[in-house]
């Protein structure tokens, strides 16, 4: 990948943005998704959709095993076909997007789960907990983003040929070598431009993806001890300085900055306001659409079932305009927590959260 001379033998044409599967964005009303994709709806017991949208008849019940938007299922990609570390990436099939798959990010906010939370942008689970892959085009990485391999295969199956975060075109996946078993292979891959050096920002981004560390402390403290490894003061460190098993930066960070677990969030069903405030991490009294999706996925531990993640995102996107009454792109606590017909209760009823 990073400095490999090998390249895929066949090129897959990147799918242009306009041909991606439709996603439900900020302009999509819940009535539209009722009419065009009734399979993803399950009417709340306390608030029937017929009452919400001009007395339309309630749609068929939600089918847990159905595609989020109906239609033909995408062709399956075999995870066992992923190449070993250091080998050319898994080529995307030369097909257009499948109607049966939801674009995972076509109208998402600009939040970057890698950068903000050290999480996979698809399932919101911590990056270091699963095997990672990066996106490539003609044998070279196209962007800085990391994904869990199973998640990247899933959106590859969906016909998506652009990074869901930055929209860079790609044609293959490349598995990331394990930093412990193949440190040199790992360094070569995470060295995006292949110059053999990493600066402070690059070090933080790649380490928080690979290791169970307190990366927020690393961001704060790295400038203080950077000089131990950047001895020539040029602002970067080389592979040996980074990867030495005894005295390298990776070994130091592992010893001194262990990961600290997070407290469980309050119960959404019984303590809605406390739950809202827990996930309002910037304390501005509102949550954005993607913040709500991430909070739900993490609260109910949906990360192992990508279909549930997609269904959750689709539902929040479809309902959003009905609850964001002022159209400012944020949900306030009163709009979210209102008993009986607030966004929280409506989501709980539709997704049958437990």
UniProtKB/TrEMBL annotation:
It holds the Pfam family zf-RING_2. Keywords: Calcium, Metal-binding, Zinc, Zinc-finger. PROSITE patterns: EF_HAND_1, EF_HAND_2, ZF_RING_2. Residues 1-111 are annotated as: Disordered. Residues 1-10, 24-33 have a biased composition (Polar residues). SUPFAM superfamilies: EF-hand, RING/U-box. This is Calmodulin. It comes from Vitrella brassicaformis (strain CCMP3155). The lineage of its organism: Eukaryota, Sar, Alveolata, Colpodellida, Vitrellaceae.
